[in-house]
Predict the 3D structure of the following.
Amino acid sequence: MTDNRHAGRSRLGASGKSSYVKRSKRNTAITAYLLLLPAFAILFTFQFLPAFEVFRLSMTDRLLLRPESNFIMFENFVRLWNDSRFWNSVWNTFYFVGVSVPIQTGLALVFALALARVFRGVEILRTIFFLPVVASLVSVSIVWDWIYHPRIGLLNEVLSWFGIEAQRWLLDPVLAMPSIIFLVIWSGVGYYMVIFLAGVLDVPSEYYEAARIDGATRWHLFRHITWPMLGPVTYLVLILQMINSFQVFTTVYVMTGGGPVRSTEVVVFYLYQRAFDSLEFGYASAISVALFLFLITLTIIQQQVLGRRVNYDR
Amino acid sequence: MSFLGLYSPRQFRRLPAGKRRDVITSTVVTLVMCILAFLWLFPFIWSVLTSLMTSAELSRGGLQLPSTLIWDNYPQAFDRMNYPQAFRNSMFFAGGTALLQCITGALAAYAFARLEFPGRGILFILALATLMIPGTVTLTANFVILNNLGWLDTFAALIIPSGASGFSIFLLRQFFMTLPKELEEAARLDGAGPLKFLFYIGLPLARPALVTVFIFVFISSYNEFLWPLVMTSSRSMRVLQIAMQTFRSELGAGIIQGPLLAAAILTMLPTIILFLFMQKAFIRGITRSGLK
């Protein structure tokens, strides 16, 4: 097939007039650039340009309401280094990511394995677990705010059946972050489940059949076939999840506003506060740059460490 | 449940021991998943039920069914968050962004998949590299840029910046690459250039892929919170997410009322309905972009 096509093209090229070929090549290139123009105009103006602009802003003392600003080199970063509120937000973000990512990944994998089998109603179960993903996060946060309500909330009511006394959940500095993490797991697990599910269903069934003939148990099948085959998928899920989790904002904004006593103030929330409450754009940009550098480094490390161990041959 | 259901008790007893254990395990797993699914669904069911309660019942709290169904909360929510306008704004925002991404994505994807030109590899990598630039990081810079353009607090600020993405270009390119080359050659013999081919053959064939991009971008833009929060300020520009949050903060933190839950339901309903109808297209967006 392919060989024929190439032969055909080269025959045409050899016999046709070379100036004609050149002109049509140039026309094709012009058409291509025109087709790319709208997408790249937007990507350039609102993705690449701001990615550089944020570095420039981070070295100025720009305030939102004062357009003229001075170049102050790394002063913002020095200030950031000594800003205990920033380090508190970094710690909170790591706490959030460190707890939510492993639990969510594990749960998503278990759900995917359980729902990869064929039985009546499996589609409905998959849909139910996925539903919170498409539901507005603001609305969902409000619903959970009410579930966590200390007096009329459902959670305390249910716990009271088991003799556990009422907690103040989102109003308690120790419990606020775990409460947010729980909501985030509930709302996000379906997304990663779907990715895992596609991976599990992709494993050729002959592998399982062959192993079963050799007397492999369920655990063996998972440990030696499914899990290694899921390598690239797990890698993808981890990267997507890390990048999403490090940018957590909406739930915090709606449910706690960073409180109580800044126990849920995460980096992006702090960034938002600096930029749009204190209106310190230069300083907020320095936080952005720190987050940016961190996320890029994280992706590279993951590529180096995890990527190498992942089995890509199918 | 359904696994046991496949066998009558008599058949089940006749199965070999190993097979019997498999059936039991499957049944237990299915049961556990059903219980979990109920728990997953419960916040939705419960908020719908509560939105139909009177305020007296609501403030009593606990697990109870509404004594009579009160619909009053819904018109109240409708009024207090100015639902019709916020809904229209959300539709403009999400629909406009999705449409724009379909257009810019299809044009660029076609060029990447089907045309040969210098710099194709580098430009494609650049388009994909945008996926590595997190939106929260460029927030301040984008604000300054939109301010300089004079677009703040307009639909242009909501729609145009996310009118193209590496995601849609990548997904549509994958589709255009699957079109057989013979199709294009046949069209060329009939005198159709690349543009004619794209508009008369490529795009109609790409409909399933375009639907996927549209649904995916629509739902994520509709649910977007931080961007409209920052880029719009006036009352008349509020999208549903912002109207919802404003309603809540006007009530005061920690205060739960029937109309607030009704508002939450009214806000999440559009994407849930859309998802239920277009499930396959949406799921394709997730699995294709990452894996295949």
